[in-house]
Protein: Homocysteine S-methyltransferase 1
Amino acid sequence: MGGEKTHALLLEDLIENAGGCAVVDGGFATQLEKHGASINDPLWSALCLIKDPDLIKRVHLEYLEAGADILVTSSYQATLAGFQSRGLSIEEAESLLEKSVKIAVEARDKFWVAKKRNSGHNYNGALVAASIGSYGAYLADGSEYSGNYGVKVTLEKLKDFHRRRLQVLVEAGPDLLAFETIPNKLEAQACVELLEEENIQIPSWICFSCVDGESAPSGESFKECLDVINKSNKVSAVGINCAPPHFILSLIQRFKELTDKAIVVYPNSGEIWDGTVKKWLPSKCFDDEKFVQFALKWRDAGAKLIGGCCRTTPSTVQSISKALKARKPVSNIRQIA
Ligand SMILES: C[S+](C)CC[C@H](N)C(=O)O
Ligand SMILES: N[C@@H](CCS)C(=O)O
Ligand SMILES: [Zn+2]
Structure:
């Protein structure tokens, strides 16, 4: 069996062992802020890789305790260019990227060793997904929600932007890759081409942002976007993250028509990010109870990976996990070494 097959099975096994639908963690940056971290900065949550790595580990452990089967790393807005513009060397920047994966792996291993000692727990051995935030996240101008990168941003430029970060993250040993808040077809294409060109052997998901409930933020249809992704077997799952929960059900139904890949959804609380003032604005917001009602519908509509994004917390994930795993047969509990 080739390495690629083994790695792809890791995600499939997790979904099966979770009872048919695995739980992704919740708002990572949100939880850092709950603990007092100040991330109003061009590096956003990645600032904590420099300032407070212990807090990153603490937040990962909180999401594991809440029942997350997948931890998404702190690298969403961690980029080589971003770190270098703060005066760090390329070596230091690469080492911070590597650290984002190592911290999550350490948290996962520590948690699992402790849980394995007690029989009767209902946890799965979690996987670590290295976050790869969109180019718009790096720009820090709200363009991960507009998809408007301007005419100068070509396919090659996007591939150049992502390539070295992708290589460093993969070398650090995550279980999978999570492309997040991709706002247009061009960037989806760049991600797919990079996975092929770099011959990446671990599974990945590509998640789009969405601001109208219908299309990618750029206005391009999800059919166009998914046609690009469907061509590659390097992508295991596709979906939506950091969009309002009330958009999700119909998007899952749409995606089911457009792809055979697993569907992953982890929406935000419904608040809207204002990229100019760098604040979450209240909108049609949803509490944990409502989020869970939605999550059950998303599961029934065929989503295989469900979690929360910005403004959701460990309490949201705990509620989702309890609800989604209520039917999980005891014999299915994953016991990996
Ligand atoms: C997912 S958004 C809230 C992340 C922050 C944004 N890229 C910014 O830096 O303004
Ligand atoms: N993984 C990132 C996504 C931001 S949209 C986070 O949770 O902070
Ligand atoms: Zn988010």
